[in-house]
Amino acid sequence: MRALVINCTLKPSPQPSNTEALAATVIAALKGHGVEVDVVRAVDLNLKPGVETDMGDGDDWPGVHEQLLASQILVVASPTWLGRPSSVAQRVLERMDAMLGETDDEGRPVAYNRVAGVLVTGNEDGAHHVISEIGGGLADIGYTIPGQAWTYWHLGPGPGPDFLDDERGHDWSVSTGRAMASNLVHAARALDAMPLPAPPS
Questions:
Q1: CATH (domain of 178)
Q2: The NADPH-dependent FMN reductase-like domain covers which part of the protein (predicted)?
């Protein structure tokens, strides 16, 4: 089984990313279940604006699209800015919109029988809003979102320290992330054993 984690931080490599640091704990949990994990830091790529799988010369999205189709599990990881998902996360969801028009050999949307979860960091409130926005978009595309397939970290409303600067709350976030990983893996195995059929015509 393979998972893809798309880190939607605004910080290009090699800058430290709080979102990456929390995602690493979920990645470790997924690997503990025998899952192979690939990671994409979307801001490092040239993801052109648009809602097509390939937006032409220099567009890096087709490679990410291939990774999505090779993965049974997707985790979208985003910081919170102004109580909302990052602009990079929005760009990723917009590019995934093309998957709505793609089907497999049995007529199923390509996101069917794949599971997804959401991870959020930030130093202000809004994590549940970000989870609902990203999770809602992924469900619309066709992903199955298991119960409690998310984790987040923040220290309440207003400015404050970042995940990498403060140990408070880490235990809860990591524990919730382990539950997220377990729920994603077991839901993916259930769908593998009993796949969703194509939508009725």
A1: 3.40.50.360
A2: 1-130
